[in-house]
Amino acid sequence: MQFTDAQLQQWLADFFWPLVRVGAALMAAPVFSVRQVPVRYRVALAVLITLLIQPMIPPSPVVDVFGASGFLIALQQIGIGAMMGFVVQLAFNALIFGGQVMAYSMGLGFANMMDPINGVQVPVVSQYWLILAMLAFLLGNGHLLLLGSVAQSFQILPVAVDGLGRAGLWGVVAWSSRLFAAGLLMALPVIIALLLINIGMGVVSRAAPQLNIFAIGFPITLLMGFILIWVTLPQVMSGFGRLVNETLSLGVDLLNAR
Q1: Residues whose CB falls within 8 Å of the CB of residue 174, separated by 6 or more in sequence, listed in order
Q2: Is the N end or the C end of the chain the one with fewer CB atoms within 10 Å?
């Protein structure tokens, strides 16, 4: 059995370019990009996913992998995959932002923990929301929906020298503002309730100056903050689910933007 140069180049192109896009998506997507997951496992998963979806995607252009055109195609595939993973990551970052705002309102801004996704210190409220969000993401098959979106992207935007357009890039930048709005909306009920509590304590301190408001104010604010977190948790997780669905749809819509 003999293989020609053209056949070998076609097989390499059909496997290598989808692998680059899938690998970039896994490196940027939540859960898969956690630092506790070794890189070799992510690479092995990317290879396995590429082998599974390769028969269902359009043939790739036969371009020299090590040439200038091959370098441009690689950049395009990295950009497309990273964009699809990054937009879903924004939903998790909205939770982190909302938790930070809430923690500062409760007086827990000094209590930080290491975020396993981004590798930075975040307040414990953000960490609590983040752990629950990751579990909800996996239980709701969010990781499978994300991988399905990446596989669908090859039908919408096949491997070629021209990839993600300028409109798609601006769409990601424009949608980033949704991160702050969504995080603030998740934390808004607790912020308003704690603000009313602080106003009430201010009135009490004016009516009874002999009371040490600093001694009793912090425990009350902290206790009410924990109660409000427990009460508002279903609404927060529901809002997070809607936000994830928006990001998954956004990733596909941005591929159609030109």
Answers
A1: none
A2: N
